[in-house]
Amino acid sequence: MIGETGMEVQTDVLAMSRSRDNSDHVRHVFEDTSRYLKNRQVDIRFRIDTVATYASDLKRQRVLDIGCGDGSISLQLLRPGCRFTLMDISSSMVTRAKANVPEDFAHAVEVRNENFTSASFGSESFDLVVAVGVMAHVDSPDEFLQKIKGLLQPGGSLILEFTDAYHFVGRTGRFWSRLKELAAPAKYPTNKLSFAQVAKLFERHGLKLVSGFRYSRVPVPGFNILVSHAREYRLMKLLFGDCARNRNARLGNEYICLLTVE
């Protein structure tokens, strides 16, 4: 499954990514922090739980969080002796992340309002890189992973999230999105990724998949109006479990992966 199909999709995405620069549009969308954080409550809770579990046994003296949002996903990992770099393209998200840094760790956390793809890190390297909610919005998934690989120390780890848009749940969601866009066009085209394509990119950049957790949201318009985010999270938790015991994974199109440098 990850052979020819994955390569064909990869080639298409790479050709597309070289022809566009959506950074200004991405920045504009994520400046509306309240709306994003409200709509993504279920995803954020799954990400917080999964990152905490994956990172619990990892070396994390130097941590980079790309697309940090309000910081809630990575700041929970703070421990004495650690140094964290949080980065987000949105100035509003960076403001929230700075406000959420515990006072006792303020000296150990740097929060940068920059685009990761153009940011300079000098000779810095990291034990752990966290990148959730980012792959759909970068200009080139290939170059994005290449840069992350170059920043990881030997034996370092990456926690990466992406959506399989070609899974049947993803296709359903895309159908409803296209109908919605007839009335309100999208600000920019997001990357439509498949697991096969992303797996090919892992192989290309020497990133070994150690573990993966899969879940999905209910792809029915208005479901989150009828059911609270808290109840939806509980329902999805019952259906999919967690990264320690992932149930019904085949039904999930949201992937949160733990990878290591080969």
Key traits:
262 residues, alpha/beta, Rossmann fold, 7-stranded mixed sheet
Instruction: Give the number of domains.
Output: 1
Multimeric state: single chain
- The share of residues in helices is 40-55%
Query: What is the makeup of the main sheet?
Result: 7 strands, mixed
Order of helices and strands: HHHHEEHEEHEHHEHHEEE
The CATH architecture comes to: 3-Layer(aba) Sandwich
Number of strands: 9
Q: Radius of gyration, Cα only, in angstroms?
A: 18 Å
* Count of DSSP H/I helices: 10
Order of strands, main sheet, comes to 3-2-1-4-5-9-6
CATH topology type: Rossmann fold
Q: Based on helices, strands and strand pairing, what is the structural class? A: alpha/beta
Q: What would the average pLDDT be, to the nearest integer?
A: 88
Unreliable spans are 1-11, 15-19
Would you give an account of this structure?
The protein has 262 residues and is of the alpha/beta class. The chain has one domain (4-261): Vaccinia Virus protein VP39 (Rossmann fold, 3-Layer(aba) Sandwich). The chain contains ten helices and nine strands. A seven-stranded mixed sheet has the order 3-2-1-4-5-9-6, with helices on both faces. Strand 2 (83-88), helix 5 (91-100) and strand 3 form a beta-alpha-beta unit. The protein is globular and about 45 Å long.
Write a brief caption for the model.
The protein is α/β, with parallel strands linked by helices and 262 residues long. Helices cover 40% and strands 21% of the residues.
